[in-house]
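Lecture notes, unit on protein representations.

Consider one protein chain, 232 amino acids long.
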Amino acid sequence: MKRSSGFTLVEMAVVIFIITLLLGSILVPLATQVEQKQISDTQKTLDEIREALVGFALVNGYLPCPDTNDDGAEDVNAGTGRCGTVAGGIATGNLPWATVGVAGTDAWSNRFRYVLNERYAWRPPAALINLSGGGTDVRVCQAANCGGTGTAVVAVIVSHGKNGYGATNSLSGTTNPSPTGADELENTDADREVVSRAISAPESSAGEFDDIVTSLSQYILLNRMVAAGRLP
């Protein structure tokens, strides 16, 4: 009897298994590359936002207030010349991207969070920024509840990363689910502390964390304003 040509079911199964392994070995690194590009692009956007905030201060003599109603514009009390929502000297909300003229979202279509020492956003009839500084500084910490051990800065811009926990989604206009880890949770409240540390997976002993943070130092801001003739 002649042996029939073609693949048997076992041979087909082996071929499919090999193809699956090959595709998996290709797709996993590709997904990692895409995610790394998203992180790099978001970090670049954050750096551009920081420079735009400095430029805004050079032109106006103060930093913008946060956007608290997701329309892209800063929210200011015109009668007092101060930010609309302040707690303990700290103003928080979304980045007023339309006011500053920068990108409104990170690589995952979520709004940037903006936290600042509200004193630096005063404008007439309130007093403008001066070399004495003042107000309540934001503190950049390596973990939640760092107390007075963090680095004092004027303002912080936060991307809530790939998981987007706690961020406002630009597509739906709604707030994403709250984070469960203490460090990410710290970056969603309205206090002066913001956590910035290495990214870690949910199963990590440090807990899940993928927020990307950049900050604006008081001394950099004041130095740039002095050099531009805005101060003293």
